[in-house]
TrEMBL record:
Entry annotated with the keyword Transcription: no
Protein name in the entry: 4'-phosphopantetheinyl transferase superfamily protein
Entry keyword annotation includes Transit peptide: no
Keyword terms: Transferase
GO molecular function: transferase activity
Record domain 4'-phosphopantetheinyl transferase N-terminal: where: 27-94
Residues annotated as domain 4'-phosphopantetheinyl transferase: 101-178
Protein backbone atom coordinates (compact mmCIF):
# COMPACT_ATOMS: atom_id res chain seq x y z
CA UNK A 1 0.00 0.00 0.00
CA UNK A 2 2.70 2.49 1.01
CA UNK A 3 4.49 2.51 -2.33
CA UNK A 4 1.30 3.77 -3.99
CA UNK A 5 0.86 6.49 -1.39
CA UNK A 6 4.34 8.01 -1.43
CA UNK A 7 6.78 9.31 -4.06
CA UNK A 8 9.09 6.69 -5.57
CA UNK A 9 12.14 8.22 -3.82
CA UNK A 10 10.67 7.21 -0.46
CA UNK A 11 11.71 3.66 0.48
CA UNK A 12 8.90 1.64 2.03
CA UNK A 13 8.49 -1.78 3.60
CA UNK A 14 5.39 -3.47 4.99
CA UNK A 15 4.32 -6.69 6.67
CA UNK A 16 0.93 -8.24 7.30
CA UNK A 17 2.28 -11.07 9.46
CA UNK A 18 5.06 -11.31 12.03
CA UNK A 19 8.07 -13.36 10.84
CA UNK A 20 9.55 -15.75 13.37
CA UNK A 21 12.97 -14.96 14.81
CA UNK A 22 13.30 -11.35 13.77
CA UNK A 23 16.81 -10.01 14.39
CA UNK A 24 17.02 -7.14 16.86
CA UNK A 25 20.10 -5.16 17.86
CA UNK A 26 21.01 -5.68 21.54
CA UNK A 27 19.99 -2.11 22.44
CA UNK A 28 16.58 -2.74 20.85
CA UNK A 29 16.25 -6.12 22.55
CA UNK A 30 16.89 -4.56 25.93
CA UNK A 31 14.00 -2.13 25.39
CA UNK A 32 11.42 -4.88 25.03
CA UNK A 33 12.84 -7.68 27.16
CA UNK A 34 9.88 -7.38 29.55
CA UNK A 35 7.24 -6.44 26.97
CA UNK A 36 4.06 -8.43 26.35
CA UNK A 37 4.07 -10.62 23.18
CA UNK A 38 1.94 -8.18 21.17
CA UNK A 39 4.40 -5.36 21.79
CA UNK A 40 7.39 -7.59 21.06
CA UNK A 41 5.85 -8.61 17.74
CA UNK A 42 4.96 -5.12 16.52
CA UNK A 43 8.28 -3.68 17.73
CA UNK A 44 10.31 -6.45 16.10
CA UNK A 45 8.44 -6.69 12.81
CA UNK A 46 8.38 -2.94 12.21
CA UNK A 47 12.14 -2.82 12.77
CA UNK A 48 12.55 -5.78 10.41
CA UNK A 49 10.67 -3.62 7.89
CA UNK A 50 12.91 -0.67 8.76
CA UNK A 51 16.01 -2.67 7.90
CA UNK A 52 14.50 -3.55 4.51
CA UNK A 53 13.75 0.10 3.84
CA UNK A 54 17.30 1.05 4.89
CA UNK A 55 18.63 -1.47 2.37
CA UNK A 56 16.40 -0.08 -0.36
CA UNK A 57 17.59 3.43 0.45
CA UNK A 58 21.23 2.35 0.44
CA UNK A 59 21.96 3.03 4.09
CA UNK A 60 23.54 0.59 6.53
CA UNK A 61 21.22 -1.39 8.79
CA UNK A 62 20.99 0.22 12.23
CA UNK A 63 19.02 0.02 15.44
CA UNK A 64 15.92 2.22 15.63
CA UNK A 65 15.64 3.51 19.17
CA UNK A 66 13.00 5.82 20.60
CA UNK A 67 13.99 9.39 21.37
CA UNK A 68 12.04 12.07 23.21
CA UNK A 69 8.31 11.22 23.30
CA UNK A 70 9.01 8.00 21.40
CA UNK A 71 10.17 9.63 18.17
CA UNK A 72 12.24 7.12 16.15
CA UNK A 73 15.93 7.98 15.86
CA UNK A 74 17.25 7.45 12.33
CA UNK A 75 20.75 7.60 10.95
CA UNK A 76 22.02 11.11 10.13
CA UNK A 77 20.57 12.45 6.87
CA UNK A 78 17.67 9.98 6.94
CA UNK A 79 14.06 10.82 7.82
CA UNK A 80 11.28 8.32 8.34
CA UNK A 81 8.21 7.08 10.10
CA UNK A 82 6.87 3.77 11.43
CA UNK A 83 3.41 2.45 12.21
CA UNK A 84 1.78 -0.76 13.41
CA UNK A 85 -1.76 -1.93 14.01
CA UNK A 86 -3.47 -5.35 14.05
CA UNK A 87 -2.44 -7.15 10.85
CA UNK A 88 -0.19 -4.40 9.51
CA UNK A 89 3.28 -2.92 10.08
CA UNK A 90 4.82 -0.27 7.84
CA UNK A 91 7.91 1.92 7.47
CA UNK A 92 8.72 4.81 5.13
CA UNK A 93 12.27 6.21 4.88
CA UNK A 94 13.84 8.91 2.75
CA UNK A 95 16.99 10.93 2.34
CA UNK A 96 16.84 14.30 4.06
CA UNK A 97 18.05 15.93 0.85
CA UNK A 98 14.75 14.86 -0.77
CA UNK A 99 12.24 15.11 2.10
CA UNK A 100 12.40 17.04 5.36
CA UNK A 101 9.94 14.72 7.04
CA UNK A 102 7.73 11.67 6.60
CA UNK A 103 4.64 10.67 8.58
CA UNK A 104 2.67 7.45 8.19
CA UNK A 105 -0.11 5.91 10.23
CA UNK A 106 -2.17 2.70 9.98
CA UNK A 107 -5.45 1.94 11.72
CA UNK A 108 -8.05 -0.80 11.43
CA UNK A 109 -10.83 0.17 9.03
CA UNK A 110 -13.41 0.22 11.81
CA UNK A 111 -15.30 3.06 13.48
CA UNK A 112 -13.89 4.87 16.49
CA UNK A 113 -15.49 4.28 19.86
CA UNK A 114 -18.57 6.45 20.43
CA UNK A 115 -17.64 9.98 21.46
CA UNK A 116 -14.03 9.87 20.19
CA UNK A 117 -14.74 11.58 16.86
CA UNK A 118 -16.34 14.54 18.63
CA UNK A 119 -13.20 14.95 20.75
CA UNK A 120 -10.71 14.94 17.84
CA UNK A 121 -12.66 16.69 15.05
CA UNK A 122 -13.17 20.37 14.29
CA UNK A 123 -16.75 21.30 13.32
CA UNK A 124 -15.95 21.33 9.56
CA UNK A 125 -14.32 17.91 9.85
CA UNK A 126 -17.27 16.48 11.76
CA UNK A 127 -19.60 17.69 9.03
CA UNK A 128 -17.40 16.22 6.30
CA UNK A 129 -17.09 12.85 8.05
CA UNK A 130 -20.86 12.62 8.49
CA UNK A 131 -21.35 13.52 4.83
CA UNK A 132 -18.91 10.85 3.65
CA UNK A 133 -20.31 8.19 6.00
CA UNK A 134 -23.64 8.67 4.30
CA UNK A 135 -22.33 8.93 0.73
CA UNK A 136 -19.34 6.55 0.58
CA UNK A 137 -19.70 3.37 2.62
CA UNK A 138 -16.83 0.94 3.18
CA UNK A 139 -14.43 3.43 4.76
CA UNK A 140 -14.45 4.26 8.47
CA UNK A 141 -14.16 7.99 7.76
CA UNK A 142 -13.96 8.90 11.44
CA UNK A 143 -11.00 6.54 11.93
CA UNK A 144 -9.39 7.81 8.74
CA UNK A 145 -9.56 11.38 10.05
CA UNK A 146 -7.89 10.18 13.25
CA UNK A 147 -5.19 8.37 11.25
CA UNK A 148 -4.43 11.43 9.12
CA UNK A 149 -4.01 13.55 12.24
CA UNK A 150 -1.61 10.98 13.65
CA UNK A 151 0.37 11.05 10.36
CA UNK A 152 0.51 14.86 10.54
CA UNK A 153 1.83 14.65 14.09
CA UNK A 154 4.46 12.09 13.07
CA UNK A 155 5.65 14.37 10.26
CA UNK A 156 5.59 17.46 12.51
CA UNK A 157 7.11 16.32 15.80
CA UNK A 158 10.54 15.14 14.57
CA UNK A 159 11.09 18.55 12.96
CA UNK A 160 9.88 20.71 15.80
CA UNK A 161 9.78 18.69 19.02
CA UNK A 162 6.43 20.37 19.59
CA UNK A 163 3.28 18.57 20.75
CA UNK A 164 0.00 19.03 18.88
CA UNK A 165 -3.55 18.42 19.99
CA UNK A 166 -6.02 16.83 17.59
CA UNK A 167 -7.80 20.12 16.99
CA UNK A 168 -4.58 21.88 15.99
CA UNK A 169 -4.87 20.43 12.47
CA UNK A 170 -7.72 21.08 10.03
CA UNK A 171 -7.99 18.17 7.60
CA UNK A 172 -9.69 18.21 4.21
CA UNK A 173 -10.52 14.83 2.69
CA UNK A 174 -10.87 14.02 -1.01
CA UNK A 175 -12.77 10.74 -1.31
CA UNK A 176 -12.39 10.22 -5.06
CA UNK A 177 -8.68 11.02 -5.33
CA UNK A 178 -7.88 9.34 -1.98
CA UNK A 179 -5.87 12.39 -0.94
CA UNK A 180 -5.96 14.82 1.96
CA UNK A 181 -4.64 18.19 2.96
CA UNK A 182 -4.02 19.41 6.47
CA UNK A 183 -3.33 22.88 7.80
CA UNK A 184 -2.09 23.63 11.28
CA UNK A 185 -4.10 26.27 13.04
CA UNK A 186 -2.71 28.77 15.49
CA UNK A 187 -3.70 27.32 18.86
CA UNK A 188 -2.80 28.01 22.43
CA UNK A 189 0.90 27.91 21.66
CA UNK A 190 2.75 29.52 18.76
CA UNK A 191 3.57 26.99 16.09
CA UNK A 192 7.26 26.27 15.79
CA UNK A 193 8.77 27.95 12.69
CA UNK A 194 10.88 24.79 12.22
CA UNK A 195 7.99 22.86 10.68
CA UNK A 196 5.62 23.29 7.73
CA UNK A 197 2.09 24.45 8.45
CA UNK A 198 0.50 22.58 5.53
CA UNK A 199 0.70 18.92 4.63
CA UNK A 200 -0.49 16.98 1.59
CA UNK A 201 -0.87 13.25 1.58
CA UNK A 202 -2.59 10.17 0.31
CA UNK A 203 -4.67 7.54 2.06
CA UNK A 204 -5.91 4.07 1.26
CA UNK A 205 -8.44 1.61 2.62
CA UNK A 206 -7.53 -1.96 1.67
CA UNK A 207 -7.81 -5.36 3.32
CA UNK A 208 -9.35 -3.97 6.49
CA UNK A 209 -6.58 -1.41 7.08
CA UNK A 210 -6.52 2.36 6.64
CA UNK A 211 -3.13 3.87 5.85
CA UNK A 212 -2.31 7.60 5.71
CA UNK A 213 1.01 8.87 4.38
CA UNK A 214 2.75 12.24 4.11
CA UNK A 215 6.18 13.09 2.70
CA UNK A 216 7.17 16.75 3.02
CA UNK A 217 9.47 17.64 0.10
CA UNK A 218 12.74 19.37 0.89
CA UNK A 219 12.06 21.95 -1.79
CA UNK A 220 8.49 23.17 -1.83
CA UNK A 221 7.28 25.76 -4.35
CA UNK A 222 6.55 29.11 -2.73
CA UNK A 223 2.87 28.81 -3.55
CA UNK A 224 2.56 25.41 -1.84
CA UNK A 225 1.29 27.01 1.33
CA UNK A 226 -1.73 28.28 -0.61
CA UNK A 227 -2.38 25.38 -2.94
CA UNK A 228 -2.20 22.94 -0.03
CA UNK A 229 -5.07 24.62 1.80
CA UNK A 230 -7.63 22.04 2.95
CA UNK A 231 -10.56 21.66 0.63
CA UNK A 232 -13.64 21.20 2.75
CA UNK A 233 -16.15 20.20 0.10
CA UNK A 234 -19.52 21.83 0.29
CA UNK A 235 -22.40 19.64 1.41
CA UNK A 236 -23.71 17.70 -1.55
CA UNK A 237 -20.44 17.58 -3.51
CA UNK A 238 -18.81 14.29 -2.70
CA UNK A 239 -15.33 14.02 -4.12
C1 LIG B 1 2.86 8.89 18.94
C2 LIG B 1 1.58 8.47 18.27
C3 LIG B 1 1.34 9.40 17.07
C4 LIG B 1 1.74 7.01 17.78
O1 LIG B 1 0.62 6.63 16.99
P1 LIG B 1 -0.18 5.26 17.28
O2 LIG B 1 -1.31 5.20 16.30
O3 LIG B 1 -0.48 5.17 18.72
O4 LIG B 1 0.84 4.11 16.97
P2 LIG B 1 1.52 3.67 15.60
O5 LIG B 1 1.71 2.21 15.68
O6 LIG B 1 0.82 4.19 14.41
O7 LIG B 1 2.95 4.37 15.66
C5 LIG B 1 3.88 3.97 16.60
C6 LIG B 1 5.21 4.48 16.14
O8 LIG B 1 5.16 5.90 16.06
C7 LIG B 1 6.48 6.39 16.21
N1 LIG B 1 6.43 7.51 17.14
C8 LIG B 1 6.25 7.46 18.48
N2 LIG B 1 6.30 8.71 18.99
C9 LIG B 1 6.51 9.54 17.95
C10 LIG B 1 6.66 10.95 17.84
N3 LIG B 1 6.62 11.76 18.92
N4 LIG B 1 6.87 11.49 16.63
C11 LIG B 1 6.94 10.70 15.53
N5 LIG B 1 6.80 9.35 15.57
C12 LIG B 1 6.59 8.79 16.77
C13 LIG B 1 7.34 5.24 16.74
O9 LIG B 1 8.14 4.79 15.69
C14 LIG B 1 6.31 4.20 17.11
O10 LIG B 1 6.75 2.88 16.92
P3 LIG B 1 7.66 2.15 18.03
O11 LIG B 1 7.00 2.44 19.34
O12 LIG B 1 7.65 0.71 17.66
O13 LIG B 1 9.01 2.79 17.94
C15 LIG B 1 0.35 8.56 19.21
O14 LIG B 1 0.48 7.60 20.24
C16 LIG B 1 0.18 9.91 19.87
O15 LIG B 1 0.84 10.29 20.83
N6 LIG B 1 -0.79 10.70 19.36
C17 LIG B 1 -1.15 11.95 19.98
C18 LIG B 1 -0.59 13.11 19.27
C19 LIG B 1 -1.35 13.38 18.02
O16 LIG B 1 -1.39 12.58 17.14
N7 LIG B 1 -1.95 14.55 17.91
C20 LIG B 1 -2.70 14.91 16.74
C21 LIG B 1 -2.07 16.07 16.08
S1 LIG B 1 -3.08 16.78 14.83
Amino acid sequence: MLTKLLPSTVATAEATADPADVFLFPEEESLISNAVPKRRQEFGTVRWCARQAMGALGVAPAAVLPGRRGVPQWAPSVVGSMTHCAGYRGVALAHERDFVSVGIDAEPNAPLRPGVLESIALPQELHRVRELEWAVPGVAWDRLLFSIKEAVYKAWFPLTGQELTFTDALVGLDAAQETFHARLLPGRDELSPAGPTTFSGRWSARDGVLVSAIAVPAHRPAEAAHSDAPRMCAAGSIR
